[in-house]
Amino acid sequence: PDVIAQTKQALANVGAVLAAGGCRWRDVVRLQTFLTSAADIPDFMKARQEVFPACFPDGVYPPNTLLVVSRLVKPELRVEIEAMAVRPARAGAKTKTAARRKAVRRRARR
Fold first, then answer.
1. Burial (Cβ within 10 Å: 0-12, 13-18, ≥19) of residue 16
2. Beta-carbon neighbour count of residue 89 at 10 Å?
3. What is the enclosing helix (H) or strand (E) of 95?
4. Which of 4-18, 53-67, 82-96 is predicted with the least confidence, judged by mean pLDDT?
5. In what order do the strands lie in the sheet with 28-35?
6. Scanning 30, 76, 84, 106, which has its CA 20 to 30 A from the CA of 17?
7. Coil, helix or strand at residue 36
């Protein structure tokens, strides 16, 4: 497949992993893209312009580092995308720090 198709598939894969981890696109704080040729940058950008508005409806995109590498693990791949996301705290979930503070207060009252 061409770079546009591979980019769209890679972004769909990232979206699936985000969902499986309890995250959404808005939780992404950083992207890192690897291309095997600088000549593929325009097609990568075209695919990104087609996909990102649905992923980031507010138009605010996370930073994206774009690297051109000699090859990827599978020779037929021309694009790889990594995403780093911060999962939001679940409603009603106590953080470990809050739980520790509460335990310390209980012990102090005794």
1. exposed
2. 9
3. none
4. 82-96
5. 64-68, 28-35, 79-85
6. 76
7. coil
Which residues 6+ apart lie within 8 Å of 8 measured at CB?
Answer: 47, 50, 51
CB atoms within 10 A of CB 94: 12
Query: Which amino acid type is present at position 58?
Result: D
CB-based contacts of 69-74 (< 8 A; 24+ apart in sequence) = 69/34, 69/35, 69/36, 70/36, 71/36, 72/34, 72/36
Q: How many CB atoms lie within 10 A of CB 77?
A: 15
